[in-house]
Amino acid sequence: MGMQINTNLAANNAYRSLSNTQNDLSKSLEKLSSGLRINRAGDDAAGLALSEGLKSQIGGLTVASRNAQDAIGMVQTAEGGLSQAQSILQRLRDLGVQAANDTNNEKSREAIATEATSLVGELGRIASSTNFNGTNLLDSAKTLNFQVGANADSSSQIAVTTTDLSEIASDLGTGKATQFTGGGTAGAATFQIVKGSATTTLTTDAISLTNADSSAKSPAQIAQALNDDAKFAAEMVAYVSDDKLQVRALSGGTVTETSTTKVLGTDAGTPSTVALDFSTASASQAAVKTLDEAITAVSTGRASLGASQNRLESAVQTINVAKENLTASNSRIRDTDMAEEMVKFTRNNILSQAGTAMLAQANQSNQGVLQLLR
């Protein structure tokens, strides 16, 4: 081999190897300092694409978990309002049972009615003031959708329906009882209940208006006959107030008799504007039946919210498990194995030192040419 000084092939080879080692050493330092195996797409293009997809899922599940916890707070707020409403309804029912006893005089009944009016007013206030983050929960029946998943599909949402406490309070406070004059014709009675846009029609079995001795039945006897009819009792209640027969729908609304031949006689003018009537024992019993209907509606609403809360709590647990597993998968793809990378760093560090020493030796290898030039 000749002796050249213009091109030092040994030094070039040593420099190339040293550059590669320095590049690997730099990457190892980057991975060790960042803790990430993939810092740029060039480190692992396929791994980066998979890791970014997992990051989207992990981020979405993190927010979904917070959403579900916020939803639980909203459901608990609604259920708390219904819980207090149910306590009020139970107290109103107690007042109805108390008023159904004829040991009460007129003043006692007025006191009961005063408390009942105040309690029904509080029901309305609860209905209008129960809200979460500015959203009223009980002023109407609402379907609330909660995002509890990371994706844009129906399985990522849970729907919760609230109870319309405002309507219940309105039916108790301003519902109407239709008064009938009597003097109708015996037979089956057909009634129509109109509440908002909903209309319900029902027909009773034949109602007799006379006793066995052919005497006319009193309003109280007719009310009892109506209440004994299963079809009638499922939707309405009859009672006597001011010696007149009164009929009221259990769920509110306006009642009219639409029979071709009137069984109860004609409607007697303006209906009463007080749904809960404690003026007589008969009216108080009717109020108790109406309150039972309201208590059942609120209990059903609370049960539905309770079931939804349990479902949301289960969703939170499921989300947390999924998030943990996805995080572990992403870690295996993207995170640096510190022990393995430290082995590489140590090797490259030693190679770098050796390469630097060899480059110095290669640079000195052509010094022998100077002996020829002397």
Walk me through this protein's architecture.
By secondary structure, the protein is of the alpha+beta class. The chain has three domains: 1-33 and 338-374; 50-172 and 293-325, f41 fragment of flagellin, N-terminal domain (Up-down Bundle), CATH 1.20.1330; 176-273, no CATH class. The protein is 58% helix and 14% strand. The protein has helices at residues 9-34, 45-99, 106-129, 165-174, 219-228, 230-235, 281-334, 338-364, 369-372, and strands spanning 131-132, 135-136, 143-147, 157-161, 178-180, 187-195, 198-207, 236-241, 244-249, 254-257. Strands 5-9-8 form a three-stranded antiparallel sheet, sandwiched between helices.
Quick rundown:
This protein is an alpha+beta fold. 58% of the residues lie in helices and 14% in strands.
List keywords for this structure.
9 helices, 374 residues, single chain, three-stranded antiparallel sheet, alpha+beta, f41 fragment of flagellin, N-terminal domain, 3 domains
Detail the topology: elements first, then pairings.
Elements: H1 9-34, H2 45-99, H3 106-129, E1 131-132, E2 135-136, E3 143-147, E4 157-161, H4 165-174, E5 178-180, E6 187-195, E7 198-207, H5 219-228, H6 230-235, E8 236-241, E9 244-249, E10 254-257, H7 281-334, H8 338-364, H9 369-372
Antiparallel strand pairs: 1-2, 3-4, 5-9, 6-7, 6-10, 8-9
Mean pLDDT: 87
Helix content: 55-70%
Distance between the termini: 21 Å
Strand composition percent: 5-15%
Structural class: alpha+beta
CATH topology of the largest domain: f41 fragment of flagellin, N-terminal domain
Biggest sheet character: 3 strands, antiparallel
Sequence stretches where pLDDT stays below 50 over 5 or more residues: 269-273
Order of helices and strands: HHHEEEEHEEEHHEEEHHH
Largest sheet, spatial ordering of strands: 5-9-8
Strand elements, count: 10
CATH class placement of the largest domain? Mainly Alpha
CATH architecture of the largest domain: Up-down Bundle
